[in-house]
Design a protein that fits this description.
Number of helices: 4
Helix content: 25-40%
Largest sheet: 5 strands, mixed
Strand order of the largest sheet: 1-2-3-4-5
Number of strands: 5
Amino acid sequence: MVVEYSDLDFGVLVNVKERVDAFNFDEAKARFTQAYELGRKFMAIDLTQAPFLSLQSIKFIHSLAVELEGRGGRLALIGPGQKIKRQIDIFASLDPIDIWPDQSQWQQHLPLNS
């Protein structure tokens, strides 16, 4: 499975285990959607094992970030490479997205009782 998620006390953590491209985008999108539909205010997508995101996945992740922001939440990317950050900023925007180097730093910066 390309994408797995865990419902945690403070939010949803989504682990992307490999590149997301045209061949596995539908599977990844379905898992991102399932994680989002848990209704948590905070969601993090761990990209430390993902060297590549397709344009489709970048736009979809950005749309999730905008929706989370609209309901008072926030989307974070954990460990994205410089190339992925540049691509997101070019094809979408990093404005509604937080960037963290690792999961523990993301967790430390979340408000209590999320």
